[in-house]
Amino acid sequence: MTAAGARQTRPQWTSTLYLLLFLLVLEPCFVRSAEFDPYKILGVGRRASQAEIKKAYKTLAREWHPDKNKDPSAEDMFIKISKSYEILSNEERRANFDRYGQMEENQPFGQSPHQGFRSFHHSFYFDESFFQFPRSREFADSKYLLHHAQFNSEVLPDSFRRPYLIKVTSEWCFACIHIEPVWKETVEELEPLGVGIGIIDLGYERRLSNQLGAHRAPSIIGLVNGRVSFFHQAVVREHLRQFIEDLLPSTLVQKISDSNYLSFLEAWQVENKPSVLLFDQVPVVPLLYKLTAFAFRDYVRFGYVDQGATHNSRLLRQFNINTYAPTMLLFKEDTQNPVDIIQARGMKKQIMDEFVTNNKFLQVPRLVNQQLFDELCPIKQFHRRRKFCVLLITDQDQAFAPGNKAFLDFAAANKKDVLRFAYVYQQHQQPLCQALLRNQATLSPQVVLLERRTQAGKVLFRSVGGGWNGSEEDKYRLYGEIELLQKDPSYLSSDATLPELNNEMAPIFIIRWLNAVYDYFLQVYDELLYSNWREMMPILSLIFSALFILFGTVIIQAFSEPGENKPQKPKSKEQPPSPGDTTDRGTSSRPPKKDFVEVTELTDITYTSNLVRLRPGHINVVLVLSDASKNVLLRKFAKEVFSFSGTQTLHFSFLNLDKHRHWMPALLRSARPGDLEDEQDFSDFTGHVLALNGHKRYFCLFRPVFTGDESGGDSSLSDASVCSSRKSRSRSRSSSKSRSRSHSREDGAASKRGASRATSIELHHKLDRLGLWMERLLEGTLPRVHVPAWPSLDPHSSTSHS
């Protein structure tokens, strides 16, 4: 080989050698990327769903858990499994892995593959121990990690039963390392007491941190009743414990002494809850007891007795309390004898929870809301787990007290796992009682046996005959009915759909509004006192916007012309518009909100709500029809009253004469003498329209008139209205003198035509003048007919509705 050829070959060998060296340097990086594959570790495909990934993770975690698997490599394998699930369970991390492959643990998302060489370059010169920063998150903290979906579906609802202490951290947070020992001690102390623990990674869970308003690491957050509070003191275990206590409501536990223990125990009748008394030597209420009271505050009332106080000696002697160990007494209806007692030197949360859970309800609780009904009388799921509810329908009047006490004694003597005893006040739960009693009014208490079947409210039930007075005969009869029901569940022969129960314990609107305002101002104060300007901007923007709108409105009103805000004078009642003038028709009513008119039929069920108990100021416009004229008159009626259907105080109904033929004659007979003209003929009521005021007990009457080609048809409007009280009749006569001449002309023509012309009125012409009559109804110029009481729809009933 010549020297020239050697010179040409040397650069080729040199470039090849450099390429080999470069590949050897990069080989560990590719090997490390290839040896860790979360899909292979979990044994799932790249198109696996989240449910499949979660199922595979749970299976492998149980298999390789260090406490169960004694293999030396179990801990390393478990860490790989947890890390793989941490990557694949987060869609952002999973997409990042699928796009770029395995990254370094602290590599931020969105980093390009070329930046991996720079990461490798840094790791080549510096070891991670140089920073003394842990390479991966500790195994003990992985179970506390919170994700956005998990927080909203599990943690947030659970915060209404127990408080949560949440730490916000990040991987490169050096300040987080300093508080780690205190955090571990606090978790070891508070978690056994029932405090929920959570950790949020600020780098991975940006969406969740923004939702909570946590923008810095480290931060510590308290979560109670869905409300977020930030910890702003020095990170000391005592401060964190006090922070949790301050988050709990101050009224959870009542201090009990010799002077108030009787009133506390006897409040079960009002609160409808059992009462728990805790006796202990310490003067302050233990945090464990507060947390238990917070978890069961919807079911049980809690009181605390300090055994070391001198003003509690009588209480300790009466219940024979051992002063050497904490004692819990649970009382129900009997305030002298507790139904359950527990005493232990080391009172644990599990023991207290089990103690309260087994006694959440009174022996015979009152149904005060739907949640209590669902828990006390659950829906039938299996034959062996069916529950029958024995329900007493009574009232809170003192006359019913002996019967209620007898029902309580019967329930205490007949305790069975398949039976649930309860009572309800008919005055407070009228829809429920009407559904079970078939709308039959009853003055004596009734006992109903029922079994719930569906979530929609369907039940099977049977009423116990004879009522309930608490006598021995009633007890014997009820015992026999229960025995028959247990032998044959088909004994419940009736079915009904129960409405949702009224919440008797719900606070009134003003209380809820004040609580919401208090929480809001408390949050604003906390934000202004501790937050930085970036976190304060939304609140400041809201405050300045409200101030701008307020002062802007005041300035506009101050500089507006005085005449613009003056209300228009109402039209004089002495000069109503003529019946023939229809240019302003419909101006007195609001525009309709719907494109149809809701017309309901007056039946035995809707009669009370649509007429007898109609709210003050509301009027029900009722069309009288028959089966033959129903379709024609309803279409015409809807067309005439459509422009008035937007009025909030008007309701529209119809009455079928074929079903309730006696009602119209009974109504006219009950009219006050002098309100109806004696010469008026009421042989046919089809096409009549009544405007009924249920509160003041009067009505206005529209009579159908013939509308032919005669020009005097418009003037017959006053003939369609029946005179009422003397005051309204004199006002209408004095205000319509100009129309009396045209009225008399039509009256004369009508008298000549006689009954033959009246019977020839076509159905679709009967309501031609109803629109003008509705105008006068809204103006208040129609005469009124007063009645002492509304007749009943039932022809066999002699009672009237006052």
TrEMBL record:
SMART domains: DnaJ. It is found in: Endoplasmic reticulum membrane. SUPFAM superfamilies: Chaperone J-domain, Thioredoxin-like. Residues 563-574 have a biased composition (Basic and acidic residues). Residues 726-742 have a biased composition (Basic residues). Residues 1-33 form the signal peptide. Pfam families: DnaJ, Thioredoxin. Its main location: endoplasmic reticulum. Residues 713-725 have a biased composition (Low complexity). Plays an important role in regulating the size of autophagosomes during the formation process. This is DnaJ homolog subfamily C member 16. The lineage of its organism: Eukaryota, Metazoa, Chordata, Craniata, Vertebrata.
